[in-house]
Every structure is written in structure tokens, then in C-alpha cells.
Amino acid sequence: MNDLKQHLEKIQTQIRETALSCQRTPESITLLAVSKKQPIARIQACFAAGQLHFGESYLQEALPKINALQAPEFNALQWHFIGVIQSNKTRQIATHFDWVQSVDRLKIAHCLAQARSCQCTPLNICLQVNISGEEQKSGFTPDSVFSAALAVNKMPSLCLRGVMAIAEKTENQSRISEQFRQAQKIYQQLQAHFPQVDTLSLGMSQDYPLAIAAGSTMVRLGSILFS
Ligand SMILES: *Cc1c(COP(=O)(O)O)cnc(C)c1O
After folding, report:
1. I need a surface site. Which of 126, 153, 195, 218 has the fewest CB within 10 A?
2. Pairing mode, if any, of strands 158-165 and 123-129?
3. CA dihedral 10, 15, 17, 23 (to 10 degrees)
4. Phi, psi of 14 (to 5 degrees)
């Protein structure tokens, strides 16, 4: 488990160095540890090493982990849902998670808002944008994000925090950068209208340096963190 702490520090150093090489403040980038397929003990060790944000993609896998880490000592731990959302799962997602980054249609936002309305803290929301244009990818089209943001911003149990996107799986770096820049542009448009918007969730293990160069404020790392 000591290895995990060292490895986490190494990844944090890489994020810092990438940020500095892009003339960015390292503190402006949050690491989301994508803990899908990781056992509870590993998440606990990662939290003990100072990691606060964890991302899960599958509700059934996440629930036992979330329920196991309910003691007051885990209060600072923030759970982010980053997977595909089926509408019949929205109630449990809204009540167990702190953030939902994969909101890809308004119907889902409405269901989450309704389910969250009984809780005192709003659910943090990122709108997922389909920046690669691939048909199999979920997300709002770039030209439909703004009107979705207006609607979400009116839901009192939700707090619109920003945008999440996944680049195409390709070796073509300039293509990835171009897609990230498109997400950045949308993020800046939202920021100009909604003062609470502060999150551009971009970058995974394979492409996070390009994401940081494009202004990402949250990198979602799984394989390089836990391998
Ligand atoms: C799994 C996943 C990640 C992490 O991917 P790695 O390549 O393992 O870093 C990030 N974001 C989303 C939406 C994911 O589903």
C-alpha cells in the first residue's frame, strides 16, 4: 500500500510538471482517481494517501464501495459518477454520488434533480459533450450544450459545474488536441454566463498532457494510477 502512496505522488508530480510546462498553475488541476474495478481497500489506501476525488462508471459496482466508506473519517471523500446513465438508475446515482459528470440528455438532468431534491446539498453536474462526433459516444452535441446548461442552471437541487468530454481513441495527437480545444471553447462560453462553472473535465491516462495543455481543470486517471 506504501507503493500506492509513492505512485500517487509520482502521478501528481507529472501533473504539476505538465501544468508548469503549459504556463498553468498546478493547483488549478484536480486529479480524479478512476477507481472502477479497484477494491475498497485500494480506494481506502488512496484516500489515506491524500486523494479526495474518486470516479466510478458502474452503479452496481460503486454502491458497495460507497456504502463501505460512510464513516465520518471519509467525509471529505467525493464520489463522481462518470458512466453511461440509464434513467432507471438516476434515483440511486443522485442520492449516493456528490458529482455526476456524464449527464448527456435533459431527461436525465430532470430525473437527477427530482431524486436529489430531498437532500440538503445540491448534486454537482457536468454536462457531457460529444467532441469526437462519433455516433457511439454519448453527450450533447456542441451546439446543444448551452441551452441544456440554461435548463440545468434553473434546477435548484443541481449545481452546474462545467463540462466533461472524452476524446477519440486515436494516435493522432493533433486530432485529440483539436477536440479538447472545442471542449475548452464550450467551457469558456459557459463560464462567461454561469459564475459557478469551474470544471473542465478532460483527459484520461493516454491523453491527459494534451488535456492539460487545453485547459483541463480535472483529469480522470484510472490505468496509470492503479496499474
Ligand atoms: C475509465 C474512464 C476513465 C479512466 O480511463 P484510463 O484510461 O484508465 O485512465 C476516465 N474517464 C471515463 C469517462 C472513464 O470511463
Report:
1. 195
2. parallel
3. -170
4. -65, -40
Gap from CA of 135 to ligand 1 centroid (Å) = 19
What is the model's pLDDT at position 118? 86
Taking alpha carbons only, the member of 65, 58, 51, 217 closest to residue 126 is 217
Return the SS3 of 77.
coil
Q: Is the distance from CB of 203 to CB of 219 less than 8 angstroms?
A: yes
pLDDT in tens, 128-186: 999 999 999 999 999 999 999 999 999 999 999 999 999 999 999 999 999 999 999 99
Site to probe by mutation for ligand 1, drawn from 7, 220, 221, 223 as the one with most ligand atoms within 8 Å of Cβ, is 220
Q: How far is CA 19 from CA 61, 115, 187, in A?
A: 33, 38, 18
